[in-house]
Amino acid sequence: MRVPFACFAATLLAGAMTSCSPTHRTLVPAGSSASGSGTTSASSTSASSSGSSGSNGSSSGSGAGGSDGGAGGSGGSGVGDAGPDASHDAGPDGSDDAGCSDSCSDPKCVSQGYACAPAVTGWTGPGYLYAAAGTPPACGAAWVMKPLGGYDPEGAPATCTACSCGTPLGHACPEATVEASTTSTCPLLQVPTTAPVGACGVLTVLGNSGYLKSTLTATGGTCAVDGGAVSNLPAPGFAENVALCTSAAAPTGCSGGERCLPTPPSGYQKICVYQSGTVLCPGGYPNVIAAYETISDGRGCDRCTCGAAAGGSCTGKIEYFGADNGLCAGLPSIVAAGACVAVPPATIGKAGFIAMADAPTGGSCTPAGGGPDGGVTGASPITICCQ
Q1: Is 108 left (phi over 0), alpha (psi -120 to 50) or beta?
Q2: What is the DSSP letter of 184?
Q3: What is the bridge-based pairing of β-strands 367-368 and 237-247?
Q4: Closest CA to 354 of 315, 333, 328, 323
Q5: Model's pTM, two decimal places?
Q6: How far is C-alpha 187 from the geometric centre of its chain's CA atoms?
Q7: Could you tell me which of 352, 16, 72 has the C-alpha nearest to residue 201?
Q8: Residue 311 has pLDDT above 50, yes or no
Q9: How far is the C-alpha of 257 from the C-alpha of 117, rounded, in Å?
Q10: Cis amide bond preceding 126, omega within 30
Q11: Angle at Cα 91 formed by Cα 90 and Cα 92, nearest 5°?
């Protein structure tokens, strides 16, 4: 049977043909249903139209009748599924451009620094470590900050008050040294004799020795010490401070025994765990940092001391008995101690004398010590182990 060209053309547009006859030209697209037909006289013409379908969609309808024929069916409309170029991948929150879903299994989160790290029984962490000079920065709302102290404790020396010594106390003039001379300036002194104050001393003199020189020396005594106190003690610290940021609420997406850590806070880099004391690092965290939670401050000032009193002077008198064979008997000549003074000339022989001393005056003690000493050391050790 011959198929009219108009029917054939409509069939090509519809994509399939179920029936097409010279009398009834009804077009039914494959996979769809259609209704409505027009019947005309021999002089009439027929026209048909069909709706177009979208991608992977369907349409239905038939064309209107000719101008002299009956009424045709209404035209179809196509409804198609949105094609690949019109679709968007929705994020976890339903938006077109969503961020990560707070999970280490989400590639978007991984690209933002999310990471899985082993959790170790008996150790705090894992978390991100700050280890540098200065105050550790805040971790942020998603984290819990754990200040851990630091390492390499340091502290400037103490400033100390100067040492000083008071006036000597307890010194005395216990003995006198006496010498004879033949001239008034005592340039050529003869063999001196030293004797305790108050005791009879025996002086050997040469002929016509009419001058006497004596010396009273203060000895002994102590001085009260002062100074050596701390006047300023700079605050100690660590060369580098350490702190650990641990996740406030553990995100998901890690295998058993691991913990998902969000994007590291600014300034925090290494993933670490820690434990008090000095211990070996667990598996997965081979790099150790020996730190201290606190500082033991042993700085101070050395104790001040004062040497023995020296430089004191004594005044007194000498009772000189002349050539009496050193018996200190008879009526003596009394002269002031110290300068070269005239006495009754003595012939060759032995002359007795007795020295009398007043309380000593003057003198001083030499201070020593009082400088800064001691230092700072780490206390309460802590072991930090990092990946």
Answers
A1: alpha
A2: T
A3: unpaired
A4: 328
A5: 0.57
A6: 75
A7: 352
A8: yes
A9: 9
A10: yes
A11: 125
The tokens for 218 are 């203060």
Mean pLDDT of the chain: 78
Q: Count the Cβ atoms, other than its own, within 10 Å of residue 175.
A: 19
* pLDDT tens figures, 328-371: 988 999 999 988 999 888 777 888 999 999 999 999 999 999 99
Distance of CA 157 to the CA centre of its chain: 19
pLDDT value for 39: 34
Give Cβ neighbours of residue 289 (< 8 Å, ≥ 6 apart): 129, 131, 151, 242, 272, 383, 384, 385, 386
Looking at the chain, the number of H-run helices and the number of E-run strands are 2, 28
Record the tokens describing residue 117, joined without a space: 């790290």
Q: What does the pLDDT average to over 245-267?
A: 88
Q: Whole-angstrom Cα distance, residue 290 to residue 284?
A: 17
The Cα 59–Cα 51 span in angstroms is 6
Q: Is the dihedral of CA 282, 288, 289, 292 positive or negative?
A: positive
Amino acid (one-letter) located at 115: A
Minimum mean pLDDT among 94-108, 199-213, 297-311: which range? 94-108
In the prediction, which pLDDT does 97 show? 34
Helices (H), the chain: 5-14, 107-111
| Half-sphere exposure at residue 316, Cβ-oriented, CA atoms within 13 angstroms | 28
Pairwise CA distance, residues 298 & 384, whole Å: 26
Q: Which two tokens stand for residue 135?
A: 């105050």
The residue with tokens 């104790």 is: 303
Cα separation of 313 and 197, whole Å? 15
Residue 256 has pLDDT above 90, yes or no: no
Summarised one tens digit per residue, pLDDT across range 89-135 is: 333 333 333 588 889 999 999 999 999 999 999 999 999 999 999 99
**DSSP 3-state assignment of 243?**
strand
Other CB atoms closer than 10 Å to residue 234's CB: what's the count? 12
Q: What's the pLDDT tens digit per position in 135-169?
A: 999 998 889 999 999 999 999 999 999 999 999 99
Cβ-in-10-Å burial (0-12, 13-18, 19+) of 348 comes to exposed
